[in-house]
Model the fold of this input.
Amino acid sequence: MEQSLPFDVDALLIFGKVVECRSLSKASALLGMPKSTVSRKLSKLEADLGIKLLRMNTHQLTVTDLGKKIYDHGAKILTEANSVRALVESSRQEPQGELRVAMPVFVGTDYASRVGASFLQRYPHSRLDIQLVDDMVHPINDGFDVVFGIGPLQDSTLISRKVFSLELFLCASPGFVRQLAEPLTNPAQLNSLPFIDFGFRDAQRKLTVVRHKRRHELAPAVRARANSFQVCKQYILHGLGVGAMPNQIICTNELRDGSIVPVLPGWDLEPLDVHMVYPFQLSFSTLISAFYDAACEIIVENTARE
Done:
C-alpha cells in the first residue's frame, strides 16, 4: 500500500466542505477552525495538485470543472473514512439516543413495526420515532436521520445503502382470471385489461417484464392506483384487475391459500430496490448502523416465512 500522497487528505475534506457551503466563512464555522486556516489549507492543496479548484471574489465562490470532479472523489474518500470510524465506534459502545426514521407507506405497518420492535428490544438505551410518509422526504430538510426510498440518489451529500429488493410478480384473483375471454399468455394482453398500479412508482420508470433476454414494456389501462400495497391487494382480491405485488411482505398467505394467483408465469417484473438514505455527517452513527442491520434481518425473516 502506498504510504505517501502528493497532497493533504484533510485539506481535500476541507475543500469538500467549502464546496458544500459555497462559503469559506460558513465552512470554517462548521469545521470549527479559523477562516485563515481554511484558506491556507485550500491554497496548499491547489499548490500540491498544481490546479485551480476554486474561483473567489468578494461576492461569489465558484468551483472549477476539475474542482467538481475532485470534490466527487473527496466525497467518496469521506464515505470510506466514516465507514472506518463507524466500524471502530460500533465496537466500543452500544447504540443509544433517538433515531428519527421516515418509511414510505408501501413498506407496510407490519414491516415497520417488526423492524422497530427488533431494534428497540436489542438496544434498550435507544429511542425510535418512525413516521410512515406518503411522499418522498429529504433526511436533512425534513428533519429525519434516516429515510427509506426508491430510485437513484439525487444528492451527493447523502449516503444510500440498499436494504432489500422487492421481487414483484403479476397477479390477479382466481375469479378475475376465470372470467377472461382467453388465457393470459402474452404480456401485450395486459394492455387491454384493468390494472391496479402501485402509486409510489416513479412516473419515469416503465413497467417492464423480462423473460430470458426478452423485454416487454407494458402500457396497461390503470383502473386504480394506491401508494399502499395493502390497498392494492384488496383491489386484486376483489377481482378488480391485474396488479404487481411483492410476495416478501404482502402476499405470502394469499399465495399459499390460492386467493391470489400469479399470471404470466415466466415473465418477471424488474425488482424494486429500497434504499436507506442518510446524511454524510451521520455515516459514523452506531444507531443508524444498528437500524440498518435490523431492517435487513426482518426482510430475511420474511423471505424465510414464504
Observations:
- Residues 151 and 260 are 28 Å apart (CA to CA).
